[in-house]
Amino acid sequence: MATVVFCSVNKTAQITARRCLFSRLKGLARSHSGESRLPLSCTHSQSGTSLAGKIWFSRGYSVRFTSHGTAGRAATGRTRRGALVLIGAAAVTAAAAVTGVLANANHFQRAEMATKVSQAEKETEQEGDILERCRGFMSPPVTDIGVLQERKGEMCTRMEMLIMETQAAFCNALEEVDGGKFKVDRWQRNEGGGGISCVMQDGKVFEKAGVNVSVVFGNLTEEAARQMRSRGKVLKGKDGKLPFCAMGVSSVIHPKNPHIPTVHFNYRYFEIQEEDGTKQWWFGGGTDLTPVYVNKEDAFHFHNTLKEACDKHHSQYYPDFKKWCDRYFYIRHRGETRGIGGIFFDDLDSPSQEEAFNFVQSCARTVVPCYLPIVYKHLNDSFTDENKGWQQVRRGRYVEFNLVYDRGVKFGLATPGSRIESILMSLPLTARWEYMHEPAKGTMEAEMLEVLRNPKEWV
């Protein structure tokens, strides 16, 4: 069972490590004959944490995992070693999930933030120049770097930097374990903005892995405005127009091995300017896990890592957002959840923009440490044709939820100018539908189905 320990480090060490991480992100040193380590200029930092030959970094905190089993071994059975540097936050939404925040027409639950935010948590962003930070990205940001420099202190800039850093961190982590490379695909939206889709297909470990960023802007349609108003938003446009900016990072990972779960996360920000120039804003997002088989240790590790992040802000956040996640990712026509959940929240707009952003960062930075240890743990697990067949059936359920119920996908497909390839990135490369499929009683498959029909408390 993995153990998670958080501890703060002094600011000087944080800043030094941060600058080093960004400048070295693309040039990680890999040693196959000894212990993994950072380049020498980085080795003095105390915020590194080793996991099966890897070094993990989380801004302001070190996260230590002690994991047993086959963690750290490649699919070939050979131990993989090398420095893996992860720059803190993880995160969020392609065009579908970003625009999906508009489609939450019937959801009135509000995420109320508490004021319990530690001083360490307020150290939310990387030090250094915008241009320097951009060098570690998978691609130049969607917004022109000069514009980002001019608007460095604005929330839209800070959020765009966060999601770009998140994309780079997660892609580097996945490339390290898989050995493959992401295809980086920049796209533009005629109505304003664009995105960066990073997709890796048919790798050694991952059948399909996507990490998308989108930053879009323009004017809300009347329909979108009506949907928002139905959610309690009072919006007053000018000449019938409501200028908006929406951005996020989203990822869905479908591994080949049935014993490695699928993971999904997205974190997003939405901002609207009203007639008098005032702005309304809110955050949303979450992280959830979809295993093929029940593994209580994995479930505890995943949920406990998320709980640790939530508890730093309010003790009620994890239980509330866990329940919200179970309700949202529910396949009504099957009477089962899509997976074992995680956290999910929307319309987060209090108590202040700064504290809401801090909370989103706390959640986002857990994505890699809550998932990658599980991947390494099961890297060499053997599986049968029957295991693979059950995985394909469960992927069919994943497709059903995304196409039938997911607000982001449905709204994105109906929105002019949306990029269909990015919206459907979340679908697996392969899936299966068997007529009247029901696992035999007493099997591991039946155990999994019982958990999906009756969600559990894992921590």
Order of strands in the sheet with most strands: 5-6-7-8-9-10-13
The largest sheet, given as strand count, sense and whether it forms a barrel, is: 7 strands, antiparallel
Shape: globular
Strand content: 15-25%
Helix content: 25-40%
Structural class: alpha+beta
Look at the structure and give the mean pLDDT: 77
How is this fold's topology laid out?
Blueprint: E1 6-8, H1 11-24, E2 48-51, E3 54-57, E4 61-63, H2 95-100, H3 130-134, H4 145-150, H5 155-178, E5 183-188, E6 193-201, E7 206-219, H6 222-230, E8 243-255, E9 262-273, E10 279-290, H7 296-311, H8 317-328, E11 330-331, E12 336-337, E13 341-348, H9 353-364, H10 367-377, H11 385-404, H12 407-414, H13 420-423, H14 444-453
Antiparallel strand pairs: 1-4, 2-3, 5-6, 6-7, 7-8, 8-9, 9-10, 10-13, 11-12
Helix pairs in contact: 5-9, 5-10, 7-10
Walk me through this protein's architecture:
Mean pLDDT is 77; it is low at 1-124. This protein has helices at 11-24, 95-100, 130-134, 145-150, 155-178, 222-230, 296-311, 317-328, 353-364, 367-377, 385-404, 407-414, 420-423, 444-453; strands at residues 6-8, 48-51, 54-57, 61-63, 183-188, 193-201, 206-219, 243-255, 262-273, 279-290, 330-331, 336-337, 341-348. It is globular. The longest helix has 24 residues, at 155-178. By secondary structure, the chain is α+β, with helices and mostly antiparallel strands. The chain has a 7-stranded antiparallel β-sheet with strand order 5-6-7-8-9-10-13. It has a two-stranded antiparallel ribbon with strand order 1-4. The protein starts with 5 loop residues before the first strand and ends in a 6-residue tail after the last helix. Helix 5 (155-178) packs parallel to helix 9 (353-364), helix 5 packs parallel to helix 10 and helix 7 (296-311) runs antiparallel to helix 10.
